Amino acid sequence: MKFCVCIKQVPDVQAAVQTGRMVLNAYDASAVEEALVLNAENGDPVDLVLVGPSTATETIRKALAMGATDATHLVAEDGGEADSHSIAALLASHFEGHEYDVILTGKQSQDSDAGLAGAMLAERLSLPYATNAVGLAVEGNKLVVTRQGDSGQEIIALETPCLVTCSNDMNNPRIPALKGIMAAKRKQIATEHVAAPSARTAHSGTVDPPGREPGIKLEGEPEDIVADLVRRLDTEAGVL
Amino acid sequence: MSSILVFCSVQDGRIKRSSLEAMSRAREVASEAGLSLSAAILGSESGNLSSEAMSYGAEQVFTVSNPVLDSHLNAPALSALESIIREASPRMMVAASTESVKDILGALAIRCDAAVLPDVATFEMSGNQVACQRPVMAAKKLASTSSAHPLVFVSVRSGSYEASRSPVSGTVTDVPFSFDDATLRQALREVVTTASDTVDLSEARVVVSAGRGVRDESGRALVQELADITGAAIGASRAVVETGLFPATAQIGQTGKVVSPDLYFAVGISGAVQHTAGMANSRIIVAINKDADAPIFDIATYGLVGDCFTILPLLNAALKEAKD
Ligand SMILES: Cc1cc2nc3c(=O)[nH]c(=O)nc-3n(C[C@H](O)[C@H](O)[C@H](O)COP(=O)(O)OP(=O)(O)OC[C@H]3O[C@@H](n4cnc5c(N)ncnc54)[C@H](O)[C@@H]3O)c2cc1C
Ligand SMILES: Nc1ncnc2c1ncn2[C@@H]1O[C@H](COP(=O)(O)O)[C@@H](O)[C@H]1O
Q1: Minimal C-alpha gap between A60 and chain B (Å)
Q2: Are A192 and A75 in contact (CB under 8 A)?
């Protein structure tokens, strides 16, 4: 099947201090991995599309190095105001000119945790969709999705063309090998300059979440610290 | 009068507690803003649940009672909610941030021309804006976000507000709904659940959570015993879910579920930001870890430094004794 994966460049949220280092959204990396696995035998394309500033090229190259076929970079220099709404609108106009059997997105952006752009894009393109996928399988012209629901896993068969948003619990994305990295360097990336359509939400800054009261560390003989804990849970915390 | 419409998620024949929490907050916001409070309930039980919504303050309840809505499939749920929103024309729709809600929120916003503030920790109306605070960067930061759009959807993280009753006698409107199966283009084949899926993690007062340190079956049995003694639901880190010892439904964190119980046991969990994103709002956190420098100790109320295979048998015995 012909896949296209929507990928986003995000700050490295794991870093203790933000240094401006940017990475491929982990959920999108899992989407790329899954498409590559599903198409490994048949050689069908796994294309990419990214909306972001020109400096996001490095993230596109990283996903190409994993083995993706072709990439389109929708260059939006000032993406600061964009929300999932504006991104979905831009992606929708891209897909109006490109036919795919399956569009994959991440289930959410690691930095904003919005989790909206995928379903928004599906609705704009009138595609059947499933979210929070932890497994994908091709069955004739259908895509069988295992999604993590509220209680248990739901197995849903989607007619193609369709869209699926992927969880990182689906797989462990490959680390690109040197050969892939070299090949990705030579690949032509189609670029197109776009202006982000207006967002529906506005951002007015971030604060640190309220901190927790400092806790108590209990060290020593296991018998003693367990007795101490049970007493504290009962008398101090009142949770027993 | 315009309203705040609360979408009530139903599970096992009742409205989820997280929906009632969201409804309780929506009721306050509505009364401050001079709006009325209404509720939307889907599925064949929706008629019976109307009175419960009213006991939390819903003056008008919109139901779509078609049984196709009893198991979650996004296309029919979207159509049903779209019909209710057209009928109710609310200023805001509020819902608990469950997987089923996350599944439809984006598509529904496009269909109904709404703005979305997803997965918020707090929300309010200020002037003509809906404003919220929402965790970002794996919950290391709280972002202030707002929207002045005429229709705003808000999904609320579980445990953000207390559920409180405020009974009114309301009206019920069953909204006409016809759905053409032929337009579905999707089919739910099966729902695979495990025994532990019957306890709703996000509603549990006590959660016992296992990490990679729990290691094997014998560790799992110790964790299970602690959960049985404390009446807890079982959670897990991503690392231990990957080993297959615990089901994916138990995963807590950025990818998994958000919980905020009174008491959270983190057993053999290092405390990566992606895990704490889902549990840092628990009231009391007990961490058991053999590494005295594990980051989980930074947020633990009580941190026990030691091997969980030594600590848990002692703790289980002591808790059993304390209970008797
Ligand atoms: C995009 C993204 C999303 C993610 N989402 C999630 C998520 O939702 N939930 C989640 O949990 N993780 C998530 N992760 C993974 C996260 O980064 C960590 O890898 C994971 O939480 C680690 O799990 P752990 O603490 O069990 O394992 P480890 O980090 O391996 O820690 C094991 C701990 O057990 C202790 N230990 C070992 N043996 C014993 C013993 N006998 N007694 C006591 N202590 C012992 C060790 O000292 C150590 O601290 C995500 C990662 C990414 C990139
Ligand atoms: N700037 C972007 N370019 C391409 N895809 C994006 C972009 N932003 C978001 N997406 C896709 O939409 C998913 C969910 O985004 P969000 O609604 O921001 O959580 C991501 O995992 C990506 O697959």
Answers
A1: 22
A2: yes
The whole-number pLDDT of residue A211 equals 86
CATH numbers and ranges of domains, chain A: 3-193 (3.40.50.620)
Please state, rounded to an integer, the average pLDDT across all residues of chain A: 95
Q: Structural domain boundaries of chain B?
A: 3-183, 201-323
C-beta A168 within 6 A of ligand 1: yes
β-pairing, B141-147 vs A202-207, is antiparallel
Chain B CB contacts of A233 below 8 Å: 263, 284, 286, 302
Superfamily of domain B3-183: HUPs (3.40.50.620)
Q: Report DSSP letters for A123-160, one per residue.
A: HHTT--EEEEEEEEEEETTEEEEEEE-SSSEEEEEEES
pLDDT per position as a tens digit, A23-51: 999 999 999 999 999 999 999 999 999 99
Residue type, B135: P
ipTM of the complex: 0.96
Which of B81, B132, B154, B185 should one mutate to test binding to chain A, selecting the residue with the greatest count of A CBs within 10 A? Answer: B185
In three-state secondary structure terms, B193 is coil
Residue of B nearest to A12 (CA): B137
A138 has which bridge partners? A143
Identical topology for domains B3-183 and B201-323: yes
For an interface test with B, which of A113, A172, A207, A219 has the most B Cβ atoms less than 10 Å from its Cβ? A113
Q: Find out whether A217 and B297 touch, Cβ atoms under 8 Å.
A: yes
Closest ligand 2 atom, residue A84 Cα: 17
The answer regarding whether domain B201-323 maps to CATH 2.60.120.10 reads no
pTM of the model: 0.96
Q: Which atom from ligand 1 is nearest to the alpha carbon of B288?
A: 43
State mean pLDDT over A193-215.
Answer: 90
pLDDT tens string B61-117? 999 999 999 988 999 999 999 999 999 999 999 999 999 999 999 999 999 999 999
Contacts of B135 in chain A (CB under 8 A): 113, 209
Q: Tell me whether strands A3-6 and B206-210 are parallel, antiparallel or unpaired.
A: unpaired
